[in-house]
Structure formats: C-alpha cells, structure tokens
Specification:
This protein has 340 residues and is α/β, with parallel strands linked by helices. The chain has two domains: 2-122 and 294-312, Rossmann fold (3-Layer(aba) Sandwich); 124-286 and 321-339, 2-Layer Sandwich (Dihydrodipicolinate Reductase, domain 2), CATH 3.30.360.10. It is built from twelve helices and 14 strands. It has helices at 12-21, 35-45, 53-59, 75-86, 100-113, 127-137, 157-160, 175-178, 181-191, 274-282, 293-307, 315-334, and strands spanning 2-6, 26-31, 48-50, 65-68, 89-92, 117-119, 144-152, 194-202, 213-220, 225-231, 240-247, 250-255, 261-267, 338-339. The strands form two sheets. An eight-stranded mixed beta sheet has the order 13-12-11-7-10-9-8-14. Helix 4 (75-86) runs parallel beside helix 5 (100-113) and helix 5 (100-113) packs antiparallel against helix 12.
C-alpha cells in the first residue's frame, strides 16, 4: 500500500515509523508548507518532498492513501480536497474536525468519492484496552454503572509557543480536542450512546485561547454515568492517561501515561491468578503519550483496504467524539446540562 503524508510536524514520526515497519506499506512522498520539515522527512525516508500537497498528489498518481497530519482546523478542507479531487483514501489524525458539521461534510465526501475515510484512534489498539473491550462484549461486567477517563498531562507555554496555531479555537482547540479526544473516544466505545453532558472548562496555566482543564459528567442511554477529567496543567510532567469501568460484576482500571498499563482487573467470575497473569502479559511501557497503537492501527487500515473489511474507525465512528466534544463546550459556555 503506497502512502503520502500531509504535515511533517510533531505526530509525523509515529506515522513514519508505522509505515516503515509494515511489510505492505511504503512512503512515496510527503508535503509540508515548511520546506525544511518536508526535507527532513525526505532525508529520513527517501521519499520525495513537497511544499504543496496538491502538487504532490498530481505528481504521484500511484499514492493510494493520504495521511493528513496537519493542524486540526485544516483537516476538513484538506480531506475533502484529497478525496473529491484526487480520489485517494484518507487517514486523518485526531480530531477529524472541530465541529460536527465539518465531520458530516467529510463523511459525505468519502461516500460521494467512493473512497474510505479513517480517523486515527490508536489507543483502541493498546493491548489492555483490547482485552477490556473483549470483556465488555462477553458481558462480564453485567450492568455498566460508571466509566471514567482521566488525562493529566503537562503542556507548558513553550509547547504552545512552538507554532502560532497551537491553542487557538479555529485550528487547534484545548485539552479536550487535542489531547483528551482519544479518551472521549474510549469512553464512548465502552459505554455507548450519550444523551446529556454537564461540563466546566478553565484556562489555568497557559496563555492560549482554549482551555487547559476540563471536567464533565456524561449521562448515557444505558443509564451509566461517564466522568471526564482532562488537564494539561499537570506539573512538572505527565502523570496519567487512564480509563476505568465499573460494573455490577466487575471493575477494570487501565492507567499509565497512555492507557497502556493494566492496574486492576477483577470480576465475580474471575479465575485464580487471572488478574496477575493479565498484568504480566498486557503491560506496555511507551516512551511517550502516543503509545504503540499507530502500527496496529495502520495494519487494520491496510487490512480494510486490501480485503474490503470495515475500517477500524471510519468517519461515522470518528464523528461520535466530535459530537460529544461539541456538547461539552456548549455546556461549559452555557453553564447548564446540554442534551446530545
């Protein structure tokens, strides 16, 4: 499968590594408006560098999949352009858009163009998360009572000063849209359809337009309660990225800095030593908050494209977290519960 990438910034190395390590993937070209960034990727990989992605796609009709790794506010227009005018499949980094209406346009564009749209949610492929999902599908929890996600990371002013678009509402957003969007996705994947949310956001430690801290309580159609705690005001460094599920017959907590470390696994029907065995076999120790999921995610994308299987996270599924995100911001602005 032949790839091109648009955007050679902070997240690009994760995609470059995933492509390089996959036997069925190759990187043909890259594009970034910063020529030095594009040239740097070219030197690392041997691909052809461009400062205009449209010229890249015109020059390389062999590119089958385009990974869009640009600021979030640019995703909709770029994805639609790539799908409609160049007919290529698209992988778009999180969040796919900052507004549900833009997500809808992207989904409609993929359908009109006859191509597939994938949204990066690599944490679904963390080994403890995969096992948790299996337990959910097997009904081991019984009735789900509560799900909680926590993001306690450090992003100081120097991080936001790396580029003038960081922390802006139009192109980036705050901790919810940029960091915790993965954890919102996991909460939705485990608990189902949300019906309302009550939220509060704050900007504590950095000079940006968007929030660096947020809390929210989500009511789900099942009756379960979701709790979201997200901040990049943790100091002096990253503390935790976690997910916990409480049911009438069991409790699981996955923590670490990137939802990567199984902390608690107990059910009323647990086998002897089940928790200890899983903790020993499922733990992962990533070097950063991105974890190890990009390679597994890319493999699922390639399987979908080569076998026509459903995609790992398509546009419709990716939109769910954008709808919740939009409702959280609306609730925080209004100071009241918002129906979803």
């Amino acid at each position: 499968m032949r790839f091109g990438i648009i955007g050679c910034g902070r997240i690009a190395p994760e995609h470059l590594r995933a492509i390089a390590e996959h036997d069925s993937a190759s990187l043909i070209a890259c594009a970034d408006i910063d020529d030095e960034k594009a040239q740097s990727v070219s030197r690392q990989t041997g691909c052809t560098a461009y400062t205009d992605y449209r010229k890249m796609l015109a020059a390389h009709p062999e590119i089958e999949v385009v990974s869009i790794l640009t600021p979030s506010g640019l995703h909709p227009e770029q994805a639609i352009d790539v799908m409609e005018h160049f007919g290529r499949h698209v992988i778009v980094e999180k969040p796919m858009a900052l507004d549900p209406a833009d997500a809808d346009r992207m989904i409609a564009s993929a359908q009109r163009s006859g191509v597939k749209l994938f949204v990066v949610k690599q944490n679904r492929y963390n080994r403890p998360v995969v096992r948790l999902r299996e337990a959910m599908e097997a009904g081991r929890f019984g009735r789900i009572l509560m799900g909680t996600v926590r993001v306690r990371w450090m992003r100081d002013q120097a991080y936001y000063d790396l580029a003038d678009w960081r922390g802006t509402k139009r192109l980036d957003g705050g901790v919810l849209s940029n960091q915790a969007i993965h954890h919102l996705d996991l909460l939705l994947w485990m608990l189902g359809e949300p019906v309302s949310v009550f939220a509060r956001t704050e900007r504590y430690l950095v000079d940006i337009e968007a929030e660096d801290t947020a809390v929210a309580i989500v009511k789900f159609a099942s009756g379960a309660t979701g709790v979201i705690e997200a901040t990049t005001a943790c100091r002096p460094d990253d503390l935790e990225g976690s997910l916990s599920i409480l049911g009438e017959r069991g409790t699981v907590e996955i923590s670490g800095i990137a939802v990567n470390e199984l902390k608690h696994w107990r059910f009323t029907d647990s086998e002897p030593d089940e928790e200890a065995q899983l903790m020993a076999s499922l733990g992962e120790a990533p070097k950063n908050v991105y974890g190890f999921g990009h390679g597994r995610y890319l493999d699922a994308v390639i399987q979908s494209l080569t076998s026509d299987k459903p995609g790992p996270v398509d546009g419709t599924e990716g939109r769910r977290s954008i709808e919740l995100l939009h409702a959280i911001y609306a609730s925080a602005e209004k100071g009241t519960e918002v129906l979803i």
